[in-house]
């Protein structure tokens, strides 16, 4: 009979195959052919790659109805198959400078030499807002600055820093996508995600498809507008894409904003955008593939870990120091990720892991909670021997850890800027966790060495966690996270390799292990 894990992995493979097929159907759609009796084909009105166009940009303050849009920029002799990038300054209306209005840009694309220009019947238009209101961020500074100022107040250098009210920010990068190759659409089966972009020249011809991409907007590109600013720089990127890429971008653009209703912040949504927007097709499929298996291995690791700790009634061979450290470090990491405004994709798993570690701590110290309060069960002789080994390993560890964890915060306080004293405290503790946290596995490794055995460890859960550790190495380059947290992903690889070396060094004698740990 197949195991539960095998069935789950098989279902994951089927799901990945289905998702891959759906992506292939989006990226490589079937083109309309005149040979089909039921097809009603729409052809490009102009030959792409040969016809030349003019692209003009106009801007206005959106909060002032009836305001005439002012000319900003023009790119002439443009071919829709050739990318380009231009940087220019945009005059800012007074309403925008005074934090009273958004700013909209209207794109107009029309054939070069068209008699009516932007008002030509062959012109296509697209409007997009290039500003956003954001609350000001805290400024980092040296807490031991001039005069020994130890205040935790934030620096004040602009109007927005004086209050917590949202302030207008300028999106410094605007990306325009166009269809880079001619494609014949079946009018009776037109892709719904592209319908709002298409303008017909006649019953069987469509005008060039362009789209001002909201998916390319990033929080990192936002620049604050101050009351003294009269102009703002804008980088315009014209990026032709294939029909498959355009369909995928439009599908995601229509759905990504709904993530806010699930508690995702703008920075979290940026991470989702980056996975799809900054990744080629094959790497995207790989990302989806490993994401599914990451969830599967997470579940299997969770299942086996819980099963191991539920059946464990004696903590022989288990380092209580290591478990306690995982609880403390998990709490510190959670505070650090929140302080750094890290993606919810990283924070949520860290929070779940902390709850599990707290439960494990209660099992190691044999603490039970009831209506009468807390109760501690007595420890066996074997557990007391494990505790003695654990204390010995912890003493050796303290000789290294105390100087490191004391010196690093002092150096950080003297030479590294921080937003506040709270920020310095959290960053100092987190740096200690990330840089030296793996050393807290020393007591467990010491116990294994003294017992000449690793059979007491939850190997099924450790194996699944190891698979996820290697997957995390890939995500470390895709999802936005603090550098220290990214390096910690590779640190976990080293810890698992050490465990595997000890497993090879101390082969499991199952008969001996059953005599020592009959509950296993």
UniProtKB/TrEMBL annotation:
Pfam families: CLPTM1 (PF05602). GO terms for cellular component: endomembrane system; membrane. It is found in: Membrane. It catalyses: a 6-(alpha-D-glucosaminyl)-1-(1,2-diacyl-sn-glycero-3-phospho)-1D-myo-inositol(in) = a 6-(alpha-D-glucosaminyl)-1-(1,2-diacyl-sn-glycero-3-phospho)-1D-myo-inositol(out); a 1,2-diacyl-sn-glycero-3-phospho-(1D-myo-inositol)(in) = a 1,2-diacyl-sn-glycero-3-phospho-(1D-myo-inositol)(out); a 1,2-diacyl-sn-glycero-3-phosphoethanolamine(in) = a 1,2-diacyl-sn-glycero-3-phosphoethanolamine(out); 6-(alpha-D-glucosaminyl)-(1-octadecanoyl,2-(9Z)-octadecenoyl-sn-glycero-3-phospho)-1D-myo-inositol(in) = 6-(alpha-D-glucosaminyl)-(1-octadecanoyl,2-(9Z)-octadecenoyl-sn-glycero-3-phospho)-1D-myo-inositol(out). The chain crosses the membrane at residues 7-28, 281-302, 314-338, 396-415, 421-442. InterPro entries: CLPTM1 (IPR008429). It is a multi-pass membrane protein. It comes from the Eukaryota. Keywords: Membrane, Transmembrane, Transmembrane helix. Its main location: membrane. Scramblase that mediates the translocation of glucosaminylphosphatidylinositol (alpha-D-GlcN-(1-6)-(1,2-diacyl-sn-glycero-3-phospho)-1D-myo-inositol, GlcN-PI) across the endoplasmic reticulum (ER) membrane, from the cytosolic leaflet to the luminal leaflet of the ER membrane, where it participates in the biosynthesis of glycosylphosphatidylinositol (GPI). GPI is a lipid glycoconjugate involved in post-translational modification of proteins. Belongs to the CLPTM1 family. This is Lipid scramblase CLPTM1L. It comes from Macrostomum lignano.
């Amino acid at each position: 009979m197949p195991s539960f894990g095998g069935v789950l992995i098989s279902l994951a493979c089927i799901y990945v195959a289905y998702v891959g097929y759906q992506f292939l159907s989006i990226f490589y759609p079937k083109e309309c052919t005149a040979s089909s009796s039921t097809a009603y084909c729409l052809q490009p009105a102009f030959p792409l790659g040969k016809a030349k166009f003019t692209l003009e940009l106009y801007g206005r303050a959106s909060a002032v109805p009836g305001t005439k849009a002012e000319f900003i920029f023009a790119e002439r002799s443009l071919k829709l198959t050739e990318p380009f990038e231009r940087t220019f300054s945009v005059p800012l209306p007074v309403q925008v400078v005074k934090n009273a209005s958004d700013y909209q840009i209207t794109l107009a694309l029309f054939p070069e030499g068209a008699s009516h220009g932007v008002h030509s019947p062959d012109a296509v238009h697209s409007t997009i807002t290039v500003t956003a209101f954001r609350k000001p961020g805290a400024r980092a500074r040296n807490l031991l600055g001039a005069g020994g100022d130890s205040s935790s107040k934030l620096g004040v250098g602009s109007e927005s820093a004086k209050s917590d009210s949202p302030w207008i920010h300028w999106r410094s990068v605007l990306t325009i996508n166009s269809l880079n190759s001619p494609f014949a659409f079946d009018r009776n089966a037109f892709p719904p995600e592209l319908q709002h972009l298409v303008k017909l020249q006649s019953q069987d011809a469509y005008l060039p498809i362009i789209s001002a991409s909201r998916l390319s907007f990033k929080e990192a590109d936002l620049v604050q507008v101050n009351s003294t600013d009269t102009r703002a720089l804008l980088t315009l990127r014209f990026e032709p894409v294939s029909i498959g890429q355009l369909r995928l971008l439009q599908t995601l653009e229509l759905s990504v904003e709904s993530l806010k209703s699930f508690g995702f912040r703008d920075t979290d949504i940026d991470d989702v955008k980056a996975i799809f927007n900054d990744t080629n097709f094959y790497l995207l499929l790989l990302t989806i593939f490993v994401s599914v298996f990451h969830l599967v291995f997470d579940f299997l690791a969770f299942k086996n870990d819980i099963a191991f700790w539920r059946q464990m009634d004696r903590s022989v061979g288990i380092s209580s120091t290591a478990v306690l450290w995982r609880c403390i470090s998990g709490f510190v990491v959670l505070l650090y990720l929140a302080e750094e405004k890290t993606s919810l994709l990283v924070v949520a798993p860290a929070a779940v892991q902390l709850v599990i570690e707290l439960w494990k701590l209660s099992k190691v110290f044999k603490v039970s909670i009831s209506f009468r309060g807390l109760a501690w069960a007595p420890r066996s002789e074997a557990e007391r021997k494990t505790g003695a080994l654990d204390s010995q390993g912890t003493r050796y560890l303290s000789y290294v850890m105390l100087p490191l964890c004391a010196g690093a915060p002092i150096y950080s306080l003297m030479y590294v800027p921080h937003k506040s004293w709270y920020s310095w405290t959290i960053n100092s503790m987190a740096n200690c966790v990330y840089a030296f946290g793996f050393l807290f596995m020393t007591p467990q490794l010491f116990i294994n060495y003294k017992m000449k055995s690793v059979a007491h460890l939850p190997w099924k859960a450790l194996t699944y966690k190891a698979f996820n550790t290697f997957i995390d190495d890939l995500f470390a380059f895709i999802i936005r996270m603090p550098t220290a947290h990214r390096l910690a992903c590779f640190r976990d690889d080293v810890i698992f390799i050490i465990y595997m070396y000890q497993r090879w060094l101390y082969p499991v004698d199952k008969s001996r292990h059953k005599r020592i740990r009959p509950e296993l």
